Amino acid sequence: MPSSDFHTQHSPFGAFASFTIGLHGARGGFGQALGGPAKQNVYVGWRTVGGPWQMLPFFEPPQSKAVDYTGTAEESSNALWRALPPDEFTRTLGWASDTWSTGGLRFAIYSPFDTVPDPTKLSREELAFLLSPSQAVELSFDNKARQETVEIMFGIGDPDNPLRPVADEDPQLAGFAMGGAWGFAAKAGDITRSVQGFSVFDSKFGDEKGLHRIASDGAIIFTVPAGTEKHFALTLGFYAGGTVTTGIEAGYYYTKKFDRLIYVLQHGLEHHAQYAALAELRDAELAASGLNADQQFLLAQATHSYLGSTELLEREGDPLWVANEGEYRMMNTFDLTVDHLFHELKWHPWTISRTLDLFLQRYSYRDTVHSPGGRREEGGISFTHDMGVNNQFSPPGRSSYECTGLDGCFSHMTAEQLVNWVLCACTYGLHTKDSAWLTKHEETLRDCASSLHHRDHPDPRLRTGIIAWDSDRCGHGSEITTYDSLDVSLGQSRNNIYLATKTWAAWLLLEKVFRLSGLHGDAADAASTADSCARAICSKFEEAEGMFPAVFEGGNQSRIIPAVEGLVFPLFLEMREAFARKGRFGDLMSKLEKHLWNILRRGVCLDEKTGAWKLSSTSTNTWMSKIALCQHVVREVFPSAMNEDAEAADAVHAQWESTPGCGAWAMCDQIESDTGKAIGSKYYPRMVTMALWLKK
Questions:
Q1: Which of 319, 413, 603, 688 lies 20 to 30 Å from 462, alpha-carbon distance?
Q2: Architecture field, domain 324-694
Q3: What CA–CA distance (Å, rounded) separates 409 from 474?
Q4: Is the pLDDT of residue 207 over 80?
Q5: 411: number of Cβ within 10 Å
Q6: Highest mean pLDDT among 47-56, 62-71, 378-387, 687-696
Q7: Pick from 597, 594, 595, 627: which is nearest to 612 by CA?
């Protein structure tokens, strides 16, 4: 079972903001547009009146900054508080909640999420409820068995930013804020007192209200009399007004309803019960999902981190959707968009079509291509890796990531992003039955098909369906895939089985879309290409080994699990006929099944030491998002390959994400399979691919 020693992001939808908390002995708190946890002390605890505070360990020992003013160091106040060890509290992470319990105290943060329609179709009340940049918190204490009055605390310490009492703006509220950017509040009538000082545990200084406004720590104190149980509602709020992006100038969509932070806090408290109930509904759905405890934890942690990267903007009255890339903060990274697809189709599918439209309008380009021998020919349409970074939109046709003249990380992903646009467009249109959108983009899809052909071979007689030419945007370098930090087994675009099966899926989906659109010639061409691609892949199967090589050139002998990654798209669309062992692609399916039988074992694609899934037999750099996706394909299409060792790995993956090696940065994607340590892609949204596990 997962431990309690990990950070989790608690984030409202579309606000690119997180209240991060949970790692033992570490700071967190309020962060906006950050690539990692904030650095505030979070104070949550209880005491019998006059006794030491019993604190959940969400802070570093406070160092009073009074010495900066007085020149004299103060005595330690450690006798006034005690950080609780892990064996004295419990933690439960739900799909939309996070709860700690100790000594009668219960502290819960609710991160509700729900279906969000296109915001242009929402009433002002619906918009406020669904897009409010706030989180609901509940503090309660069961003091029925005690003979002494108990006090409970919630507070924040930010050494770099002195706080202000929110009561200055609204006397009906109690709490603290940092300017107009973030803050917390409860109803003034619920609290006993507010505390502001250089330490919440020892406030020596104060104005007429007992507050020292120059100081960095602020807390509110509640009282629970002996023999009673009390529940107190709090809200956490964020706010960023005006234009927040460059390149494309836009502001947060929630500002259409909320003018200031204080209104966010007021709204959060007014609707606290509804937000808590919605979170509890999501928690109940996950509990009833049939997933085991490790899988439930992983999906819950993944969803929390995904929400922390979401950003809904408003540009000239229209919604502008951005999913940021965790610690890297790249905007709408296309190879994340294609993996977020399955979650977003459930909760807010309109974000997919709008993102695809923006890729087409601003972040598409046309190129030429070259063969490994240097021959140059027409390429065609493709799309950038991303739209910018850190709220800075890149110029049209350019990403923040891709560079010329490279063979590895930071090279271009032209072929993969072309395939991604096709897969996203077809999956969106077919799943939502948005025939009008598909009709609007018929010519673009035909253009994409032509471009795919040219990257295979300019001569139709020599085409196999597999990407074999590189974009001239690479210069003397070569194209890469989303697996940019892995070795050639997954990093190389050309003649790679990962991209080959993904391209096969793209042709299969194009065939279906073209047939539904009445484009019978294009459908026949797509069908023929899908068949050719399947035959070409099968021809690379090594019968003696019972496996495919990762790359179909250079004598490559790496073995990879993502050989089956592309199958997720026809699987999601319930195109089950594609997987029939005696059907059209029976030979491909049979060979992929044998491949999985032979690689899903220790020493190949299960780590020899830990038993974790390794995407590549020749790299310990493994990615949780892609593991989750491939697990879904294996369980649904190739269940016979899901042996006991492969199934047992869920517990290993959950342990990774719930201990400090990864948990210091909430959900982490790139992990060393033999140590469980995060090596990249921290504070990351992509693991929401685990939403596929709910689709049986």
A1: 413
A2: Alpha/alpha barrel (1.50)
A3: 12
A4: no
A5: 28
A6: 378-387
A7: 627
